[in-house]
Amino acid sequence: MTTTLTRPAPAASTPAHAARRPRWEPWGLGALLLGTALLYLWGLSASGYANSFYAAAVQAGTQSWKALLFGSLDPGNVITVDKPPAALWVMGLSGRIFGFNSWSLLAPQALEGVLAVWLLFATVRRHFGAAAGLVAGAALALTPVAVLMFRFDNPDALLTLLLVAGAYCTTRAVERAGPVWLSLAATALGFAFLTKMLQGLLVLPGFALAYLVAAPTGLARRLLHLLTAGAALVVSAGWFVALVALWPAGSRPYIGGSTNDSLLELALGYNGLGRVFGGTGNPGGGGFNGGGNTAFGGATGVTRLFGASMGAEISWLLPAALVALVAGLWFTRRAPRTDRGRAALILWGGWLLVTGLTFSYMSGITHPYYTVALAPAVAALVAIGGRELWRARAALPARLALAAMIFVTAAWDFTLLAGTPDWHPWLRWTVLVVGGLAALLVAAVEVAGRLAVVGLVAALLSGFAGTAAWSLSTASQPHAGSIPTSGPSSAGGFGRGGFPGGGGMGGEGSADPDLAALLSATTTRWAAAVSGATSAASLELATGTSVIAIGGWDGSDPAPTLAEFQQLVAGGEIAYYIAGGRGGGNEIASWVAANYTATTVGASTVYDLRP
């Protein structure tokens, strides 16, 4: 970062990666990665199958290669999950190699978290030194929503890793105007699209702007390189879209969540503009049970990331990151175009602002755990801004900006911790007092030697105490369901149990034992059919059999149709129909009830469909 506090400073000097590595760096990096691995892997199997919706699809992928390719909910390949399957590929291959169980399902997510921390360290270290890299890595590792998602089987873990990989490649590309590195960054974003569709592209404006502004070559070449990277993005994301479109629809599963069996329509509709603007099938924070519903993001607006839904997930260091971004851009306003400090601020700042504002104002379905996609940007900005302001602390404006970062963090963390007043009440007061004293020390006119180090250590302790404590509490508890949240059980919300009613047929990832025994004894292609994916998933995980999830996630998808279902029944391919489930009042349910006799198995109403 180049400051103009008192006089123009020189452009960025020798990159940190080219300088001699400090002797303590390998030890520091080893401790960071080992600590992250322990945090993410310890007691991992306590969460069981976590989100049964995705776990059932992974189990199906271990039984059928076609199910693995398309992300089917069942090995019979009736319908897919409502996301592209990249994250399922990783978990499914793990299950095929090590056998399907809780550990093989969740361990890949934890390892993706460790890789993300390492890549963030490597990215920040290149131009800002090992110390800043370690701070960035630790800030990401100890973000509560990161701890939550890297111990869970949602797609967000792989998404976050791919976004950090894209940032690393973009940083390398900006250094020497490298089109190959820029295309690699675009490829990472292409696979991020295949993980969670348009959310994987929200970082694109920041990446492209950083290269367009700071790459050390002419404007024409910069534009050409960006066009080449755009082609790489289209190819890396589009190959699977084309595969789905060209594959005969009758021999592949229906694309869950779409209205016309199209992956592209799913990307632009339900998982695209529908998420941003809301509408049918997308009752988000502004619509589902009102704007105050914390499971769906709460009310839209600029303060959403600090609210009851998302605040404790992501915002512990967010105020400091915003101060660092504003101060950094101001102090580098007269820097040369290719200044690498400003390029980093554009990259990470663009990531934070575009993604953060999208999350803040999107009116469709959004959940608190989505904010894990902000964690790397927040961590990088805090580390970069803190390091550069510390180096420039001889100037009063730099000291004041650094003191502001420290104090707003302490004050906001105090506010977050006060939301659970009975949970370690001493912690919030310690954070506030230590942070306030650290800010005063840093802001003092004469700060030198040991006193400066005391202020720095106090700032780090107060800044990380709240988020670390919340993260440790998150890791110590099992999480399941479709909408997990972080923090201690006293924090309330959906945290430990996920979305209410998500389990069906005996609960999340479980089934009535009598019903499970009945299905386990079947020999048909599908043991049963039931409305809604969560009910079907519970049965599949409990029995290892194939169950048709009529209508997909919420029972509303047109798959299978009544005619298709009747044909499968006539062919003797489905043993039972189980009444109820999500969206259970469909035409298939009516047809079954009119033509077959109901019996009771355990607590469920079952129809025997066998000839």
TrEMBL record:
<feature type="transmembrane region" description="Helical">
    <location>
        <begin position="27"/>
        <end position="44"/>
    </location>
</feature>
<feature type="domain" description="Putative mannosyltransferase YkcA/B-like C-terminal">
    <location>
        <begin position="521"/>
        <end position="595"/>
    </location>
</feature>
<dbReference type="Pfam" id="PF13231">
    <property type="entry name" value="PMT_2"/>
</dbReference>
<dbReference type="GO" id="GO:0010041">
    <property type="term" value="P:response to iron(III) ion"/>
</dbReference>
<keyword id="KW-0328">Glycosyltransferase</keyword>
<feature type="transmembrane region" description="Helical">
    <location>
        <begin position="368"/>
        <end position="386"/>
    </location>
</feature>
<keyword id="KW-1003">Cell membrane</keyword>
<dbReference type="InterPro" id="IPR056785">
    <property type="entry name" value="YkcA/B-like_C"/>
</dbReference>
<feature type="transmembrane region" description="Helical">
    <location>
        <begin position="103"/>
        <end position="122"/>
    </location>
</feature>
<keyword id="KW-0808">Transferase</keyword>
<dbReference type="InterPro" id="IPR038731">
    <property type="entry name" value="RgtA/B/C-like"/>
</dbReference>
<feature type="transmembrane region" description="Helical">
    <location>
        <begin position="180"/>
        <end position="212"/>
    </location>
</feature>
<feature type="domain" description="Glycosyltransferase RgtA/B/C/D-like">
    <location>
        <begin position="82"/>
        <end position="236"/>
    </location>
</feature>
<keyword id="KW-0812">Transmembrane</keyword>
<feature type="region of interest" description="Disordered">
    <location>
        <begin position="480"/>
        <end position="506"/>
    </location>
</feature>
<keyword id="KW-1133">Transmembrane helix</keyword>
<feature type="transmembrane region" description="Helical">
    <location>
        <begin position="314"/>
        <end position="331"/>
    </location>
</feature>
<feature type="transmembrane region" description="Helical">
    <location>
        <begin position="343"/>
        <end position="362"/>
    </location>
</feature>
<feature type="compositionally biased region" description="Gly residues">
    <location>
        <begin position="490"/>
        <end position="506"/>
    </location>
</feature>
<feature type="transmembrane region" description="Helical">
    <location>
        <begin position="128"/>
        <end position="150"/>
    </location>
</feature>
<dbReference type="GO" id="GO:0016763">
    <property type="term" value="F:pentosyltransferase activity"/>
</dbReference>
<feature type="transmembrane region" description="Helical">
    <location>
        <begin position="224"/>
        <end position="247"/>
    </location>
</feature>
<dbReference type="GO" id="GO:0009103">
    <property type="term" value="P:lipopolysaccharide biosynthetic process"/>
</dbReference>
<feature type="transmembrane region" description="Helical">
    <location>
        <begin position="451"/>
        <end position="472"/>
    </location>
</feature>
<feature type="transmembrane region" description="Helical">
    <location>
        <begin position="398"/>
        <end position="420"/>
    </location>
</feature>
<dbReference type="InterPro" id="IPR050297">
    <property type="entry name" value="LipidA_mod_glycosyltrf_83"/>
</dbReference>
<protein>
    <submittedName>
        <fullName>Glycosyl transferase</fullName>
    </submittedName>
</protein>
<dbReference type="Pfam" id="PF24878">
    <property type="entry name" value="YkcB_C"/>
</dbReference>
<dbReference type="GO" id="GO:0005886">
    <property type="term" value="C:plasma membrane"/>
</dbReference>
<feature type="transmembrane region" description="Helical">
    <location>
        <begin position="426"/>
        <end position="444"/>
    </location>
</feature>
<keyword id="KW-0472">Membrane</keyword>
